[in-house]
Specification:
Elements: E1 3-6, H1 17-25, E2 30-34, H2 45-56, E3 61-66, H3 91-105, E4 115-118, H4 129-147, E5 152-156, H5 165-175, E6 180-184, H6 185-190, H7 194-201, E7 205-209, H8 232-239, E8 248-250, H9 261-274
Parallel strand pairs: 1-2, 1-8, 2-3, 3-4, 4-5, 5-6, 6-7
């Protein structure tokens, strides 16, 4: 499978050409840019153009853009007013959040990519028919804007009642938007489980977010970390059933104890690809 690294691994740093060069030198051929204000300011044309000029001269490819989730630089901790939510009940607020996502999508005008990753609601949000209607209206707008820039919107399974694998399928059936998915192993592990969610989503999966956790909190651990609880041998078996639909894409967190995080990510990808079930696993 092709390999991709999300810049989520470096999200507490400003996204620079030097950082991208470290990813390229680690032998990873593509990235997903994670839009967080402290990492990349999607309103800052000078930062975007500096990155665009670097990409033009580099073999590193931009696979996807992760749509912003917050407008502040501290993960929404400055208040709910910073949480970007396309299911917002107040129309004027929903239009504002849709506008923020469109501004981030303008990155694709100068750095071409395949996908934009979009969350349906926010963490812990309960299901409601109104939220479905609001999301439908917003995603129609976002999808058209993205398509005009050669980008496809992918919905992600996230830890809330709107976007489990089952609910994503329900949403597609109700709205007829026919959107494809990014399958997040860590989020699945917090819900119904990796295998169950994968099987529900598998025909529409176009990208991945591979990471692990303790089954309780969204830790974005490296796969195969001893503190994780995902069966990676079985997960790789599942992923190999649809190898042409998606690359192996890591979405990891650096807690400050990694000396060479890009190289560690490359070694993790090697280890995942080398996983095979033993006779005892069968």
């Amino acid at each position: 499978m092709n390999r991709v690294l999300s810049t989520h691994l470096f999200v507490q740093q400003r996204l620079t050409t030097a950082l991208l060069q470290r990813i390229e030198q680690a032998g990873i051929p593509a990235v997903e840019i994670f839009c967080a204000a402290q990492h990349i300011d999607w309103h800052n044309k000078s930062q975007i153009m500096e990155l665009a000029h670097w990409f033009r001269d580099s073999p590193l490819q931009l696979h996807a853009i992760h749509a912003p989730m917050y407008t502040d630089e501290i993960w929404g901790r400055s208040g709910p007013h910073t949480h970007i939510n396309i299911t917002e009940r107040v129309k004027s607020e929903r239009i504002k959040w849709t506008g923020e996502i469109k501004r981030a999508l303008e990155i694709a005008e100068v750095i071409p990519c395949k996908y934009v990753i979009q969350h349906l609601g926010v963490t812990g949000q309960e299901y409601s028919d109104y939220s479905v209607d609001a999301a439908f209206t917003a995603l129609e707008d976002i999808s058209l804007f993205a398509k005009q820039r050669g980008v496809e919107v992918l919905l992600e399974n996230t830890p809330n009642d709107l976007s489990t694998a089952e609910r994503l399928n329900l949403f597609n059936g109700m709205t007829h938007l026919n959107l494809n998915y990014v399958f997040d192993t860590g989020h699945a592990n917090l819900g119904a489980g990796v295998e169950q969610e994968f099987l529900l989503m598998r025909d529409r999966i176009r990208s991945l977010h591979l990471h692990d956790n303790d089954g309780q909190t969204d830790q974005h651990l490296f796969p195969l970390d001893p503190k994780g609880t995902i069966d990676w041998t079985r997960t790789m078996e599942l992923l190999r059933t649809k190898p042409d639909q998606y690359p192996l894409l890591l979405e990891l967190r650096d807690n400050g104890d990694l000396e060479h995080p890009a190289q560690d990510a490359a070694r993790t990808l090697d280890a995942l690809e080398n996983l095979r079930p033993t006779s005892n696993d069968k």
